[in-house]
Amino acid sequence: MSRTAASITFAALCTAVWAPALVFAPGYADRVMMRVLLGCAAVASVAVTTALAGRLSRVGALLGGLLALVGVVVALAAWRPGQVPGAVPGAADALLHTGARILTTTPPAPTTVDTVTLPLAGTWLAGAAAALALRAGRPLLALLPPVVLLTGAVVLAGPDGAPGYLAVTVLVAAGATLLGAFTAAESGDGRETRAVLRAIGVAVLLAGLAAFAGPPVLAEWSRRPPDPRPAAKPPVTRDEAVNPLSYLPGWGARPLDPLLTVRTARPVELRWVTLSEFTGETWLPEQGYSPAGEMLPPPVPAPPRPTSQRATLTVANLPGPWLPAVGNPRRIEGVPVSYDPESGTLVARDGRSVGHRYAVTGDVPGWRPTDAARALVPTDPAFDRYRELPPGAPSRIGEVAAVVAGTDSPYRQAVRLAEYLRRDYVLDARGRGGHGYANLAAFLVMPGEGRRGSGTADQFASAFAVLARAAGLPSRVAVGFGQGGTDGPDGRQVRTGDALAWGEVYFDGVGWVPFDVIPGTRTASGSGAAPEGAAPTPAPGSAAPQRPEGARPAAPAAPAEKDTPDPDDSGTWVGLTVAALVVLLATPLVAVPALRRRRTRRRLHQGTPADRILGAWAELLDGLRLAGRPVPVAHTAKDVAIGHPSLEWLAVQVNAVGFGHAGDVESVQATAAVDLAYGYVRTLRRSRSRLRRLLWWLDPRPLFW
User: Fold this and answer.
1) Nearest by Cα to 461 from 452, 451, 469
2) What is the rounded CA–CA span in Å between residue 687 and residue 83?
3) For residue 672, with 0-12 CB atoms within 10 Å meaning exposed, 13-18 middle and 19 or more buried, which class applies?
4) Where are the beta strands (DSSP E) in 389-534?
C-alpha cells in the first residue's frame, strides 16, 4: 500500500471513530472541548494500536493501548478534576463510576474527568478494535466498532437528544472513503491514485445523500432511543426535617435579621425552594437533585420574553442546603451544586448554604396576563402528582374552591383564587403560621360570610396551591426573597422580612406561571407573578376551548431506512455507474415522502385556523382512501362522521368553517383538529398489513388526488 493510500485510509478510519463525538458533545457544557478530546482519542487509539500491533500480538497491542488510556485518564484527572480530588484517586474514581456520574448529572454535563471518561474510553476501544480489524485486512469489519459506539452515544443522549444526522453523514463518508481507498490500494493495478479519487467521489455522493435525504425521510419517525437516566438514583436526597415554608412566620415576626447579600447591576428577586408534594400537614421539596456543572439546562417550555441577569450572592444565615437563584438559573460559578430541572431548585453539594459566595446567571421571565389566558392544563399523567390532595381534606377547602374558581377557563380559575386571597384576607406577619389541613380550615373564609380572614405568608401560598388542586389545576408552592434594601453602590441586603411565598400553576405550552397571592405585595420580576395575576375577562357566554376527547399528537411514521451501497470492489467506473443507478432509483423513494410531508405541513401548520381545520379534514380523507376506505364524493362531512364516529367533532368544525364564520375559529381549535388528524391517520396506517404500512408514505397517488 502506497503512502498516499495509507494516509487516506488512516484518516478515514480516525474520522469514522470520531463521528460519534458529534452525538456525545451536545450533552456537555463545553462542546468544542469534547469534540477535540474525542478527536485526539480517536487518532491516538488508532495510531498507538497500529504501532503496537507491528511488534506485539493483537492481545498485547490491545492491552498496551489500555495502559496508554489509563495514563490519559490520570492526566485528565489532574487537568479537569471531578468530585474526587487528586490525579490518581480522581482517575480511579472516574474509571469506576463514570457511567453513574453521567446518568445522575443534570445535562449539560461538566467536562470533568468523571463525566468525560466513559465516552473517552469508548472512543479509544472503538479505535483500537477498528485498527486491529483493518490490519487483519477486514475494512468492513473495522467499521463495526464506530457504528456500535454511535449507537451507544444515541442511547446515552436519550430521547431528548438532538438527531445524529451529522454524525451519520460523517460516518458514511468516512466508511465509503475507507472501503474505496483500501480496496484500490490492495488491488495493485497501477492506477491506485485514480481509484482513490473515485472512492472519495463516491463517499461525497453517499454523504450528500445521507445528509439531504435522511432528515426529511426520518423526521416523522416515531421511534426514540430509551432513556437510561431514570434507572440511576440521584445521590442527593431531600431532608424532610427542614421545611423552608415553615421559616416564614418566624421571619415575619423578626423582619430585620440579615440573611444574604446580593451584588448586581439592577435589583432582582430570588427563587429559593420549590415545594411540590403536599402531605396534608406540610409541603416538601422534590425527592432528589442531580449533580450539575456550571451550565444548567433551559426550562421546558421556554418562559416568555426572558431577560438574562447576573448576581453575586453571599449567604450569611440561611437554613438547609438550598441556594437562592435568579429566575430560571442557567449558569452558576463558585460552588459545586446539584440541580432539579423540574423545579429549578439549586442545592449546595456539601449540604449547607451558609458561607458560600457564588455568581448565578438566570433568565427572568417577562410574564403578561395574556400569556396563559387561553391555555389548557395538561392531561399527561406525569402531572397528576401536582393535582393530588392527600386524604382528610376539610370540606371547606372543596367548598371554597368550587365557589371561587367556578367553571371558567383554567387561567381564569387561578386568577380568581389569587384575587380572592388578596382581596378578602389580611396578612398577619406575627401570626403563628402553619399550612396543613387543620390550619387551612381555620384560615379559609367562605365568600359572603361578612368577615375577612388573616394569616401568615406560608398560609396564603399553601391555601392557593391547595385550592387550585381542589379545582383540578396542577399547582405547587415556591419560596424566595424580594429585592432587599440598598447596601452600597451595587449591593443589596436581603433580610428576613424580604422572604416571599407564592403559588404556581402549570399550563400546557406555557409552563409554570406564578401568582401573587399575598395582600399588599407585588413581585416585580424574577420569582414573582404577573404583577396583578389578572387577565382579561372573557366575553359573556364564552368558554375555554377544549381539546376533543381522546385526541393526542401523533406523528406518522417514516418509511424504513434503505441500505446504502458500498463502492464496487473492482475500483473501476462500475462503482460510479452503480452509485448513479442507486441514486436514480432512490430519488422517488426520497422525493415522494418529502413532497407528501411538505404538503401535510402546509395543510396542518400554515394559514389561518380555518384553513388548518380544512387541511386536517383533507388529510383524513386521504388517509381513509389509502386505507381502502374511500369516501364517496357525494358524502357530506356529517355523512362521513356517521361511518366514523371518532371524527364527529372535526366534522362539526368543518361545517362551521364552511357554512359559518371562518374568522371566529380560534387557534386552539385548529391545533386540536391537527392532533386529531395525526392520531386518526396513524391508526388507519396501523390497521394495514406490514407491507402496506411500509409502502404507506411511498405511495405517490395522494399527490394527485
Assistant:
1) 469
2) 53
3) buried
4) 425-427, 453-455, 475-481, 485-486, 491-495, 499-507, 511-515
